[in-house]
Amino acid sequence: MKRKKHGSGDDDAQIDMTPMLDIVFIMLIFFIVTTTFSSEKGLIGNRPKNDQAQQTPSKALSVRIDQNGEIQMVGRIVDIRRVVANTQTYLAENATESAAIQAHEDAEHGIVVEVMDQLKIAGIKNVSVLVKKD
């Protein structure tokens, strides 16, 4: 048997990596350019401004609904159709953005929701509902 001698010709037989590296860098540039970065979504806290800290807190509008469906605003009984007008009158005299509806637990939900809608139409931004139990 004859053994092959390793000569200098075998050392030159290597794979040229340059074209493969060119393709890898082109793909890397393509993915970097086409990638879209999205900002993280989360809750944004509403922090008070410095000038608001010095102001006196505003008084919330109080609305009471009893078990019979009677609506009381600012100490008087009001019809459901007059809630917007009475609220606008209250807002003209008092600077507030909130209202509290104190509803009896036996009051109809439709009346409570309608009063909430009327307050929103009148310009109240924050409406809270309290349930009064006897």
Can you tell me the CATH class of one domain? Alpha Beta
Distance between the termini: 112 Å
Question: Per the principal axes of the C-alpha atoms, what is the gross shape?
Answer: rod-shaped
Could you give a short account of the major beta sheet? Answer: 5 strands, mixed
Q: Give the strand line-up of the largest sheet.
A: 3-2-1-4-5
Question: Which class of secondary structure composition applies to the elements?
Answer: alpha/beta
Strand-residue proportion: 15-25%
Summarize this, please?
With 134 residues, the chain is α/β, with parallel strands linked by helices. The chain is built from 5 helices and 5 strands; from the N terminus they run H-H-H-E-E-E-H-E-H-E.
Give an account of the 3D structure.
This protein is an alpha/beta fold and 134 residues long. It has a domain at 58-132: Nucleotidyltransferase, domain 5 (2-Layer Sandwich), CATH 3.30.420. 38% of the residues lie in helices and 19% in strands. It has five helices and five strands; from the N terminus they run αααβββαβαβ. The chain has helices spanning 8-11, 18-34, 50-54, 83-93, 109-122; strands at residues 61-65, 71-73, 76-78, 98-104, 126-132. The chain has a five-stranded mixed β-sheet, with helices on one face. A hairpin with a 5-residue loop joins strand 1 and strand 2 (71-73). Helix 4 (83-93) crosses helix 5 (109-122). The termini are far apart. The mean pLDDT is 81.
